[in-house]
Amino acid sequence: LRGTQRRLVCESTDGGRATTTTMSTHDDAHEATLRPTKEFETKGGGKVQVFHVGEREAPAEEDPGRREADEAERRGMEQFEKDLRKKLYRDPLATCATLDNGAKIPLVGLGTWKSDPGQVGAAVRMAIQEGYRHVDCAEIYNNEQEIGEALSEVFKDGVVDRKDLFITSKLWNTDHAPERVRPALLKTMEHLDVPYLDLYLIHWPVTGNVGPELKPSIQETWQEMEKLVDEGLVKAIGVSNFSVKKLENMLTYARIQPSVVQCEGHPYFRNDKLRNWCNARGIHFTAYSPLGSPDSTMMFRSSRDNPKLMEDPTVVSIAKEVGKSPAQVLLRWAIQRGTSVLPKSTNRERIRMNLELFLWELPEPLFNLLNTLPMQKRMLEGDIWLNAAGPYKSYEDLWDEDKSSLSKPVVRIPSCVGTASGGKQLYATLNTGQKMPYVGLGTWKSKPGEVRDATLAALKAGYVHIDCAEIYQNEEEVGDAIGRALEEGIISREELFVTSKLWNTDHAKGDVEPACRKTLKHLGLDCLDLYLIHWPVTGNKGPQLEPPLEETWRAMENLVEKGLVKAIGVSNYSISKMQALMGYAQIPPAVLQVEIHPYFRNDDLILWCRGKGIHVTAYSSLGSPDSASMFENRKNLPKLMDHPVVKEVAASSGHNVGQVLLRWGVQRGLTVLPKSVNPSRIASNLQLFDWELTAEEFEKLSTFEEQFRMLDGSFWLHPHGPYKTVEDLWG
């Protein structure tokens, strides 16, 4: 760069198009260095870097002209970054939802609740200068005059015009009477110094009256709200803190449907029922307290014991993975759900970061993970409105929901694996970077003489994943089939994913490697793709497991270091045993293989593993139909494949019951291991990737009340061993 112009260079790729922007400053004969100062991610997945060209050698004497040029360069760089930021954000109003009246509501608005006097005006000015175009107010916040002064300043300074902003306010509880609605709005408009509001909400379905009925009625108040629209004082109307039941009642008399419902919404209270109801009717949902209302504990007695969402381990781990703050992750999650959010801040950098939500997105698996946090609880329960002599005597009266159903949620693992064109096999990415097929051939209980042909038939049908174990006593036959398939060019070793398992009698550190080498010899392979500890069991007597699982895991890690296996994991471990493993593992487990099917969803364990980046493989995906003939205590258990709902979904989807149960597992993000020696059934079990269960079908299979293990491990229990009860084994 000697003897060239100093330039700021911005190179980006967005949507496949490359652009380069340069800004000249002044000639410089000194050698220079490029120093990146900013990096942005674009919506198209590209990156934009801004570089500063700085000198390696400073002039011997300071040149006044040079100092002036440096200052001009600094100002130019600031303006360049500002222009770039605007360009990347596009028009903030483009990052909007469209209301039923055609108006655009920006998906990020500045919340002004709990903003201290003297600070909220500065926050509003900063937010608008940084690109916010949505300000959420309310008369009860007691700060609308200060907000109005800030709005007047930004209008006067030409930062924005009134038409560029979306301004919301709310009608307070004491102004529900028909004669008070319009004056309350005019007072708000006077304080905000605006000729109209974009949105006016009924703040609560509360008036404070005594007696069994709400007075004045919501119908009376709503009819006055509709007149405000007719008069042009507000462009849209809506409600806040209403339940589905109260909204359904409103629609029976509303001439103008509410455009917006503003309610609490975050991963600890997803409010799915209300949001889904609104979506079905074209009503936009705005989420307040998107960060879990971290300061509610100081304000409300009922909130003092609430967990802190931003400290949730899953939220924190996702934030680390995507390189964002927990707050940004929570706000981005809400936006990806299609809701607008109202973060509150008086800090310029935080305000700026909140707008950068539009430059990146959460990967689908991480987004889905936040949809499954088991904690579901309102942070603002509205208990201040409850009165034994009023219309709302209990939480259930106010919200029209059973509070106990929230404190004991039914956890759902969402559908998170779609389809592939042509039914091609899909893969999960392990924490090692390996690709693990979602369907593998199970080889447990395959009779001698049958498993060779079954394995070969599977490889010919398109399987690329074989699940083995030393205890199955058939690895030599499986190895024969693999060898033949490799010789005939049916599959290459690079395409094949082979799993095996360490048996209970080989847990001692001196036995692990010989056991692995024995398996490799039987399979005719140099390396396993995945090696699992089969059970957290050794068969010893005494209160402690001997050898301890830590010793075994250290030996498993040694196999990775020697190149005998690519990844290691465990099978039949509980959450507590997984937590202990993570406490000493130098190489974290890549996979956990456990029993999973609609009769035993194993939700908590799956969610825990997802939070730690551990892939889950489901065995007995069809409900282990032959367990009744193998285990005395399983003889009277119902057969999953005979369940009427499974048969109903099979009929409605046009697939057999086996395919339906396997697709349910795959759609939950699990690898499944169907076992068969019948070539046509083997092929059928792989036909899972060119169709999917509908949301209704998926939900039906995810809600069976019966939940029990087909293989409860009771055969490992011993009165003188470390596992005396089933609770000891799985606890």
Short description:
By secondary structure, this protein is α/β, with parallel strands linked by helices. It is built from 25 helices and 24 strands. Helix content is 35%, strand content 16%.
Give a written overview of the molecule.
The structure is a single chain. The chain has 731 residues and is α/β, with parallel strands linked by helices. It is 35% helix and 16% strand. Strands 7-8-9-10-11-12-13-14 form an eight-stranded parallel β-sheet. Strands 17-18-19-20-21-22-23-24 form an eight-stranded parallel β-sheet. Strand 5 and strand 6 (104-106) form a beta hairpin. Helix 2 runs parallel beside helix 3, helix 14 packs parallel to helix 15 and helix 16 (509-523) packs across helix 17 (549-561). The longest helix is centred in the N-terminal third of the chain and has 26 residues, at 64-89.
Helix percent reads 25-40%
Distance between the ends:
65 Å
The total beta strand count reads 24
The description of the largest β-sheet is: 8 strands, parallel
User: What fraction strand?
Assistant: 15-25%
Average of the residue pLDDT scores:
85
